[in-house]
């Protein structure tokens, strides 16, 4: 496999240990899956997290078998012997800025059953995946995430140290599952250089979220702002660092006020897509939940 080295400061053995520690901290055991029965359990976790119209399933156990056979990653997290979260990734290729091809793991899905959020299980799954990937000579994992989901932004940018390197409007087309239905499926492409210093720093807990006011005092401009009566305002900006507001809980807004959810989608797209489309990056999240976006120089 041809892999372009970034800065490799972490060994595969260390990454595997990091994964085991994260699992212990969140009270789960994470392991790779390889039987048809386990694949069916993983499928059932995802179909519970993303409820589909009757008869639908996100990924069949047959497809999982094929992706696994072709060098893909499938894992489950267990509490008291029961699978409560699972993750799937397959081999991907992408082109770096200089045109060279880079092999990475594309992580397609990671979900924890309702009631198991916010206790580090997502981190434990991703760190298991990182150890697995480094052992197989990958140095990068990529995945998509909905820019409006603030929890995932915190996990991906701040806890794991990933960087959003692209914004794709309506990436999946129409989606029918209970979390996404009715909203265009815009996604960030997240890049996670798993052996890099940036990622090691994030995982060590050394990186804390900056406060909005602190960045504004340093010259950052707010380019998506929520005014006191809740109106979303996209502002012109010229600074190299820009702040983009993100709703606290878009899933609840989609259920309670689909019109407001659509306004969020379009406003965030307007603020972010042109900048990231020209090489800008989303690198962090403030304490208040805004994206910190760097413009390409
Ligand atoms: C994505 C998912 C697997 C993450 O798992 P998790 O166990 O909740 O993740 P973690 O606990 O490791 O990290 C979540 C972080 O977000 C924080 N968070 C939660 N809600 C937040 C919000 N509204 N704003 C900012 N941060 C938030 C949590 O406090 C936690 O950070 P902390 O550990 O610093 O306190 C899980 O939330 C899930 O299954 N979601 C539904 C499916 C999904 O969206 N999957 C991802 C796309 S494939």
Describe the structure.
This protein is α+β, with helices and mostly antiparallel strands and 297 residues long. It has 2 domains: 12-203, Aminopeptidase (3-Layer(aba) Sandwich), CATH 3.40.630.30; 212-294, no CATH class. It contains 9 helices and 12 strands. The strands form 2 sheets. The protein has a 7-stranded mixed β-sheet with strand order 1-2-3-4-5-7-6, sandwiched between helices. Strands 9-8-10-12-11 form a 5-stranded mixed β-sheet.
SSE diagram, text form:
Layout: H1 12-26, E1 29-32, H2 36-49, H3 61-69, E2 73-79, E3 82-95, E4 101-112, H4 121-135, E5 140-145, H5 150-159, E6 163-168, E7 187-193, H6 197-203, H7 212-217, E8 221-226, E9 232-234, E10 241-244, H8 250-256, H9 258-276, E11 281-285, E12 291-294
Parallel strand pairs: 4-5, 8-10
Antiparallel strand pairs: 1-2, 2-3, 3-4, 5-7, 6-7, 8-9, 10-12, 11-12
- Order of strands, main sheet, comes to 1-2-3-4-5-7-6
Relative helix content: 25-40%
Using the 3D structure, state the CATH architecture of the largest domain: 3-Layer(aba) Sandwich
- The CA-CA distance between the termini, in Å, is 33 Å
The helix-and-strand class reads: alpha+beta
Computed CA radius of gyration, to the nearest angstrom: 19 Å
Outline type: globular
Ligand identities: coenzyme A
Number of helices: 9
What's the CATH class label of the largest domain?
Alpha Beta
Mean pLDDT: 94
Question: Could you spell the SSE succession in H and E letters?
Answer: HEHHEEEHEHEEHHEEEHHEE
The poorly predicted ranges are 1-5
Task: Give the domain tally.
Answer: 2
Number of strands: 12
CATH homologous superfamily (4th level) name of the largest domain: Gcn5-related N-acetyltransferase (GNAT)
Percentage of β-strand residues: 25-35%
What's the CATH topology name of the largest domain?
Answer: Aminopeptidase
Q: Outline the biggest β-sheet.
A: 7 strands, mixed
């Amino acid at each position: 496999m041809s892999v372009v080295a970034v800065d490799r400061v972490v060994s595969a053995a260390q990454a595997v240990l990091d994964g085991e520690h994260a699992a212990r901290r969140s009270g789960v055991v994470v392991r790779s899956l390889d039987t048809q029965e386990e694949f069916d359990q993983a499928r059932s976790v995802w179909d519970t997290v993303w409820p589909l119209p009757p008869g639908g399933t996100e990924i069949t156990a047959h497809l999982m078998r094929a992706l696994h056979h072709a060098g893909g990653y499938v894992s489950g997290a267990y509490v008291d012997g029961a699978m409560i979260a699972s993750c799937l990734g397959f081999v991907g290729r992408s082109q770096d800025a200089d045109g060279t091809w880079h092999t990475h793991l594309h992580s397609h899905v990671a979900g924890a059953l309702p009631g198991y959020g916010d206790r580090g299980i997502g981190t434990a799954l991703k760190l298991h995946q990182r150890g697995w990937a480094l052992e197989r000579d990958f140095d990068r994992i990529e995945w998509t995430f909905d820019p409006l989901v603030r929890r995932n932004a915190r996990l991906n940018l701040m806890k794991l140290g990933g960087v959003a390197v692209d914004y794709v409007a309506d990436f999946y087309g129409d989606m029918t599952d209970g979390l996404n239905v009715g909203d265009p499926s815009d996604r960030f492409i997240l890049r996670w250089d798993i052996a890099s210093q940036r990622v090691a720093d994030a995982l060590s807990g050394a990186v804390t979220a900056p406060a909005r006011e602190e960045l504004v005092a340093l010259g950052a401009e707010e380019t998506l702002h929520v005014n006191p009566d809740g109106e979303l305002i996209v502002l012109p900006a010229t600074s190299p660092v820009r702040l983009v507001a993100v709703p606290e809980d878009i899933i609840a807004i989609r259920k309670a006020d689909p019109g407001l959810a659509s306004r969020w989608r379009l406003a965030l797209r307007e603020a972010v897509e042109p900048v990231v489309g020209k090489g800008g990056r989303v690198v962090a999240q403030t304490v208040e939940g805004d994206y910190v976006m760097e413009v390409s120089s």
